[in-house]
């Protein structure tokens, strides 16, 4: 490591003999040191007051003051200066005084050898250099310690300010979370609660702090196993619906799960109670269904009137006395066919108007669902119908009544949009892992801008007084509850094409 001191301080020689001083000075200078020489101790003390020296070499025998007394004063006033006693006498007492009183580090006997003098001076100069370097390093260390103390105090102040800021942010965050009426919890990968808001604690019937570390499905939904539709682990921002049945009180929650940035998987889950919302949706669906029945009533009455008229006519023919047995059998067959036609129409209307629970689902054949919906319209309106059946059995796990309501809404809209004598095509198709119930018409179609709004509640393009504006919105919600979708596009026969899509497969 390089030295922190670039140059050595000079050497001061003190002796009352001029020849000895010159010899000492020449030897030191020849060795590369800066040297000065004075003949009297008092003169040396004056020099020491004006300049710093690395080493002071003093003779012992001098007339005004001996070397030990002089070096003692140097030790007292300039303790960092190295001191060497030069003597021609083997005076043990003088050496003892020099060590004890003057604190000499070395001594040199007269006459000296040049090599010995250079070696002793080199050791003393090196000792002086080390002492000065140590002082510099100690000073630097002291400065660094002062700087570190200042920086540490500054850091502590910043940390305290940051803690105060974080605490303030935490308090605002807690206030904001607790102001949200929907339950919100933060759970780890093992579904253990790490934090929650007041609404979640209220739902669990416990204090918020007591929920930490407990399973979310145990605390919030009072069940021992994870919820069947738990969104954690699904795609980002996924949504599902989870039921809650506690003390006979049933509720349904829509759950949103969001992955939080953390070393270990953590999710923020929000729960929205949609029990009342779904109840209102069902009531709206029933209202729309009753409105559809009202719109169909005239056509259904006309459709039933035709077979009833046939029944009455053939009953009158069968009552004639001259009717033969062969004609009577044929009349009875016609009467039976007309009665069965009336039964099918009435049964389809009853199925359509029946209020079934949305959870009542079973394996149903989609071709038959289409037929039941079309029975309510065939021959009741001046439109042509085409039913494109799927070539084999098309089975889906669904609510038959709700799917029939969707088809009735779509067929009614197609009828309203189609011109007189226009074609309405109802088909059952397959697309990858989905069944597709499509309804196409030959109307004007739906503009691109309208397609974004048609599934909104109460939005309608029909004249005032025609339709409730709920049909497509309700149909869209029904398909979503079935895990499917309702889409709109352009029909191959010229008008609009609506697709009700369902997952394939049975329960």
What order do the helices and strands come in, and which of them pair?
Elements: E1 11-14, H1 18-30, E2 35-38, H2 41-50, E3 55-59, H3 67-77, E4 82-87, H4 92-102, E5 106-109, H5 114-179, E6 184-188, E7 193-196, H6 198-204, H7 208-211, H8 216-221, E8 239-246, E9 249-260, E10 266-273, H9 275-318, H10 325-353, E11 362-365, H11 366-375, E12 384-388, E13 395-398, H12 400-417, E14 423-431, E15 434-440, H13 448-451, H14 471-481, E16 485-490, E17 496-503
Parallel strand pairs: 1-2, 1-3, 3-4, 4-5, 12-14
Antiparallel strand pairs: 6-7, 6-10, 8-9, 9-10, 11-13, 14-15, 15-17, 16-17
Helix pairs in contact: 3-4, 9-10, 9-14, 11-12, 12-14
Report on the architecture of this protein:
The chain is of the alpha/beta class and 507 residues long. It folds into 3 domains: 11-137, Rossmann fold, CATH 3.40.50; 180-273, 2-Layer Sandwich (Beta-Lactamase); 279-503, Histidine kinase-like ATPase, C-terminal domain (Heat Shock Protein 90), CATH 3.30.565.10. It contains 14 helices and 17 strands. It has helices at residues 18-30, 41-50, 67-77, 92-102, 114-179, 198-204, 208-211, 216-221, 275-318, 325-353, 366-375, 400-417, 448-451, 471-481, and strands spanning 11-14, 35-38, 55-59, 82-87, 106-109, 184-188, 193-196, 239-246, 249-260, 266-273, 362-365, 384-388, 395-398, 423-431, 434-440, 485-490, 496-503. The strands form 4 sheets. The protein has a 5-stranded parallel sheet, with helices on both faces. A 5-stranded antiparallel sheet has the order 7-6-10-9-8. Strands 12-14-15-17-16 form a 5-stranded mixed sheet, with helices on one face. A hairpin with a 2-residue loop joins strand 14 (423-431) and strand 15. Helix 3 (67-77) packs parallel to helix 4 and helix 12 runs antiparallel to helix 14 (471-481). The longest helix has 66 residues, at 114-179. The model has no long low-confidence stretch (mean pLDDT 80).
């Amino acid at each position: 490591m390089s030295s922190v001191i670039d140059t050595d301080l000079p050497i001061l020689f003190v002796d009352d003999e001029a020849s000895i001083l010159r010899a000492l000075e020449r030897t030191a200078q020849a060795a590369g040191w800066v040297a000065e020489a004075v003949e009297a101790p008092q003169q040396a003390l004056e020099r020491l007051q004006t300049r710093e020296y690395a080493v002071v070499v003093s003779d012992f025998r001098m007339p005004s003051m001996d070397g030990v007394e002089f070096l003692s004063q140097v030790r007292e006033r300039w303790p960092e200066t190295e001191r060497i006693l030069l003597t021609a006498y083997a005076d043990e007492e003088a050496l003892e005084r020099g060590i004890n009183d003057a604190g000499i580090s070395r001594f040199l006997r007269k006459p000296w050898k040049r090599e010995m003098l250079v070696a002793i001076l080199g050791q003393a100069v090196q000792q002086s250099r080390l002492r000065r370097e140590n002082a510099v390093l100690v000073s630097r260390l002291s400065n660094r310690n002062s700087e570190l103390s200042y920086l540490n105090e500054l850091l502590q102040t910043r940390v305290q300010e940051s803690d105060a800021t974080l605490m303030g942010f935490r308090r605002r965050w807690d206030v904001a979370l607790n102001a949200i009426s929907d339950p919100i919890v933060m759970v780890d990968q093992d579904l253990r609660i790490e934090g929650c808001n007041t609404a979640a604690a209220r739902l669990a019937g416990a204090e918020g702090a007591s929920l930490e570390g407990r399973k979310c499905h145990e605390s919030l939904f009072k069940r021992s196993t994870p919820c069947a539709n738990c969104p954690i682990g699904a795609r980002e921002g996924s949504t599902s619906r989870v039921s809650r049945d506690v003390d006979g009180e049933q509720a349904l929650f829509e759950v949103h799960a969001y992955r939080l940035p953390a070393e270990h998987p953590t999710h923020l889950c929000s729960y929205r109670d949609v029990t009342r919302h779904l109840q209102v949706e069902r009531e709206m669906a029933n209202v729309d269904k009753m409105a559809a029945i009202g719109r169909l009533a005239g056509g259904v009455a006309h459709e039933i009137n035709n077979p009833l008229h046939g029944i009455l006519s053939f009953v009158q023919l069968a009552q004639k006395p001259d009717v033969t047995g062969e004609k009577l059998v044929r009349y009875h067959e016609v009467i039976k066919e007309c009665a069965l036609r009336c039964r099918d129409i009435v049964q389809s209307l009853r199925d359509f108007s029946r209020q079934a629970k949305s959870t009542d689902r079973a394996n149903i054949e989609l071709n038959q669902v289409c037929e039941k919906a079309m029975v309510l319209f065939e021959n009741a309106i001046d439109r042509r119908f085409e039913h494109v059946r799927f070539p084999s059995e098309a089975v889906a796990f669904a609510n038959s009544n709700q799917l029939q309501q969707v088809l009735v809404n779509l067929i009614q809209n197609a009828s309203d949009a189609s011109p007189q004598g226009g074609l309405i095509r109802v088909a059952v198709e397959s697309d990858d892992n989905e069944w597709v119930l499509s309804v196409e018409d030959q109307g004007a179609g739906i503009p691109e801008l309208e397609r974004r709004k048609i599934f909104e509640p109460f939005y309608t393009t029909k004249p005032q007084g025609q339709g409730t504006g709920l049909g497509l919105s309700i149909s869209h919600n029904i398909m979503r509850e079935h895990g499917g979708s309702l889409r709109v596009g352009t029909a191959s026969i010229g008008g609009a094409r609506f697709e009700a899509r369902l997952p394939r497969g049975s329960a």
